[in-house]
Amino acid sequence: QKEVEQDPGPLSVPEGAIVSLNCTYSNSAFQYFMWYRQYSRKGPELLMYTYSSGNKEDGRFTAQVDKSSKYISLFIRDSQPSDSATYLCAFLLTGGGNKLTFGTGTQLKVEL
Amino acid sequence: DTGVSQDPRHKITKRGQNVTFRCDPISEHNRLYWYRQTLGQGPEFLTYFQNEAQLEKSRLLSDRFSAERPKGSFSTLEIQRTEQGDSAMYLCASSLTQGLGEQFFGPGTRLTVL
How do the pLDDT tens digits run along chain B, 114 residues long? Predict the structure, then answer.
């Protein structure tokens, strides 16, 4: 079993739609739960992170963590064409270098 | 632009040749990471430095790979005797050690081995 599972997509939605992106993980020791956005030919950039179970909102983006189910989600409201990118879930164990464990990424396209 | 730069952005080489990539991190960041990303996959950790000390290497980093950070500033990643399986995007990231230690990624070096 892979440590992180993420549906690679591609996912195509109309402008204004609500997008739901999800990951499951198996390592219960992960402490931080993150979402990165990666535009084509660019490096990933941190979008949001959470530390505990529950929801965290930032503008049109909401990150949700359910530690009991080992499941995290990212919701994008009122999606825009500029949201078209690959979204990577990532997990962090602090200590020992803080190396990130990424999902495969979900490719999202928001159509006009 | 995150402030992390990588050079070159693209490299095409023939199998068996050696290649070297450079990463310049954000100046006050004492941690520097190398990741590899193949098509359709997320980045995978290769190695990291704290200042000039290389503290961890992934088993993905075969003996053909070597990384240095001689003065705790820029870093180089060298691949000797390249193979077609080395074709990937090589990403560098830097961070502080305090708090979350958010990693800021460079644009990557895309390597194609013919």
Answer: 889 999 999 999 999 999 999 999 999 999 999 999 999 999 999 999 999 999 999 998 899 999 999 988 999 999 999 999 999 999 999 999 877 788 999 999 999 999
Q: Which residue has the tokens 């023939």?
A: B14
Strand partners, B10: B110
Q: Mapping DSSP to helix (H, G, I), strand (E, B) and coil, where does residue A44 land?
A: coil
Nearest to A101 by CA among B4, B42, B90: B42
Query: Cβ neighbours of residue B12 under 8 Å, at least 6 residues apart?
Result: B112, B114
Residues of A in contact with B21 (CB under 8 A): none
Tell me A16's DSSP state.
T
CA distance A29 to chain B (A): 16
Task: Please name the member of B41, B55, B100 whose beta carbon is closest to the beta carbon of A104.
Answer: B41
- Amino acid (one-letter) located at A88: L
Interchain CB contacts (distance < 8 Å): A and B:
59
Residue A55 CA to residue B13 CA, distance in Å, equals: 47
Indicate the SS3 state at residue B85. helix
Assign A28 to helix, strand or coil.
coil
